[in-house]
UniProtKB/TrEMBL annotation:
Ranges that cross the membrane: none
Protein name in the entry: DNA helicase
InterPro entries the record matches: CarD-like/TRCF_RID (IPR003711), CarD-like/TRCF_RID_sf (IPR036101), DEAD/DEAH_box_helicase_dom (IPR011545), Helicase_ATP-bd (IPR014001), Helicase_C-like (IPR001650), P-loop_NTPase (IPR027417), TRCF-like_C_D7 (IPR037235)
Swiss-Prot/TrEMBL keywords: ATP-binding, DNA-binding, Helicase, Hydrolase, Nucleotide-binding
Organism: Opuntia streptacantha (Prickly pear cactus)
Domain of life according to the entry: Eukaryota
PROSITE patterns listed in its UniProt record: HELICASE_ATP_BIND_1, HELICASE_CTER
UniProt keyword annotation of Cell inner membrane present: no
Amino acid sequence: MAAAKLPVSDFRFKFGSRCHISTLFINDKYSCRRWSRKPQFPICCSAYTEGLSPTKLAQGKDRIPDWENDPISVLNERVRRDHGARDGAKPAMDSEEAEKYIMLVKEQQQRGLQKLKAAGREAKGGDRDGGGGISYKVDPYTLKSGDYVVHKKVGIGRFVGIKFDVQKDGGEPIEYVFIEYADGMAKLPVKQASRMLYRYNLPNDTKKPRALSKLSDTSAWERRRTKGKVAVQKMVVDLMELYLHRLKQGRPPYPKTPAMEEFVALFPYEPTPDQKQAFIDVEKDLTERETPMDRLICGDVGFGKTEVALRAILCVVSAGKQAMVLAPTIVLAKQHFDVISERFSGYSNAKVGLLSRFQSRAEKEKYLHMIKNGELDIIVGTHSLLGNRVVYNNLGLLVVDEEQRFGVKQKEKIASFKTSVDVLTLSATPIPRTLYLALTGFRDASLISTPPPERVPIKTHLSAFSKEKVISAIKYELDRGGQVFYVLPRIKGLDEVMEFLELSFPDVEIAVAHGKQYSKQLEETMDRFAKGEIKILICTNIVESGLDIQNANTIIIQDVQQFGLAQLYQLRGRVGRADKEAYAYLFYPDKSLLSDQALERLAALEECCDLGQGFQLAERDMGIRGFGNIFGEEQTGDIGNVGIDLFFEMLFESLSKVDEHRIRSIPYQEVQLDININPHLPSEYINYLDNPMELVSEAEKAAEKDIFSLVQFVENLRRQYGKEPYSMEILLKKLYVKRMAADLGINRIYNSGKMVAMETNMSKNVFRLMSSMVSDSLRSSLLFEHGQIKAELLLELPRQQLLNWVFQCLAELHASLPALVKY
């Protein structure tokens, strides 16, 4: 029979003779058998294998080729990975709608950047750079010999010192900064150094970089700096998209009710000016805005953050919605439950419940049922509230206390709420991520830095451990009728301390508290300590957050080098909550055992002993403590490449120019691919397919929809029929090329001899960012001019090879999309 052609869109199938073709049914890696066109059993996996007979395969002389690492599979894997990392379920926006929301984001950013500039002017180490942004450049005079520094253009070196050096022309001596690099010593004038140098801080205890940079070869440093820039850009886009989608989630403003005025009147204290402003901010968020609130209340311990949350809860509950209060420990959750129950005791319609791991199965089931049916209005608990079994009837508000105490998975779950419900985060020392979002305008913040009038500062003492000092401190507190916290980093040492204190104070009631105790025992211990029956409580950092015991005004913290700065600050805040002078004693075993980071942490804590210093402390904490909490563990390597200070300067620069890195996709149908290539499929493969016409139509529809749909189509095709022949691969690549071009805003691809050109709507800034993320070989061949991406190849390629080159080029450019705003 003569060969026939079947044109469908860009596809043309070439039929050969329609004789019976043997095909393969594969049970596992090695075995196979013949099967008819209509098998009587379910097919697990079938494979078309061009040019191989079933007999040869069965004998093992030839195997099905390994196609898992072919270019299409590699691209599919990358697309799937990106799709998983980014929420594929986010609603789409058209460009007009996106324009409106991007303007809102920019207005919010401007407010945040104004705060940053003010903070930069006040900070000791930071100053404003020439462009009016925030600079993390270091003052050379604050460096010590041996400190590691980063020169923006050269890389990482070791500071040696500053000294005067005579000029060659015999003029006045000039002060130079001397920096040691891997292959020599560099000197630069102090004025220049103050514009180009950054302190090199790492995201962990070790401050030493992997290697010093070379003066003779700055290309390695340039690559590291580019990686840092790309990491920053991806982070900014993720934040931008989260904020955009939160703005898009509308909800009607909550009504102002008489109950709210009554609730305010019942507050027994006179609010501080900062507290009043926080009340106003939250009320406006809830009753005037039509988008979910995401506000940080940053107030020092005992400064009245909880009252702000209580008023927000009342506003939401009065409108018939549920409120969730999330605490990091059961001790703090129980305290919140008691405070909320007391404050809402006059409101019979507001039902309050506590859910924790200490409850019996029956109690838990009862509460879960009540939450699901809307019988509980205010639900208090620990991370168990984030579990899949907890189904809310009509959740309106999430209050998170001390977010930095939650694990990565819990933080991700908290983040997932932020696009749909109002979120209020309370923290005395916010995690750096929270603080940076607050400062840069992606999130609103209210700062409560004014202490209540009766509060006095805590006297902080830092010294080597000695039993005499411990006994003296405890005796002083007990003699004035007070109580003492004695905190250790681990459960292991509690019994040893208990033994020592029982010998020293035989007539004093002493108890132990930690998270591994049975619930009843722990609750009873904390209750007796709150009532004043227990005078000394030996405990772990389970008491870090929230406990409000007016009569406990001395805290002893042993082995301070094992605590984080934020933890120490919170622990110290357990005392000094009344009008009595409070004391915090921080003991370390031996200074020679402390790391530089631990010493720096403790020095910062001593400096910040004034009230209301938690916010400033958190800023300093960013440059000191572990970086995994900030932007996720995957970022730590990128930050280590350039150091924290330069990384953050890049972050602020990127935030202020976020709209410059915006890419506009175009409809798939508008892409014109002027590479004339129409390969014909083997007749064996056409015979093998169940419905070639329908298959082609599905492929086109998938490509029109989005790249992920095309990936799914191709994976399903291969799963059902095995690896396609080369001609089919070329046809699929045409679909991929058009799809990727549409995503990148490329409307035409053509060649003229050795020159390949792509007409695009992208800006030069976008192209510059994208080209910094591709391979060196591709970067060197690409050029952007007059709205076109051009590449001059070494020789004129045949059409199929040209298509392969375009496919690989677009695949690399497409991989940069996570770093771009796509509206």
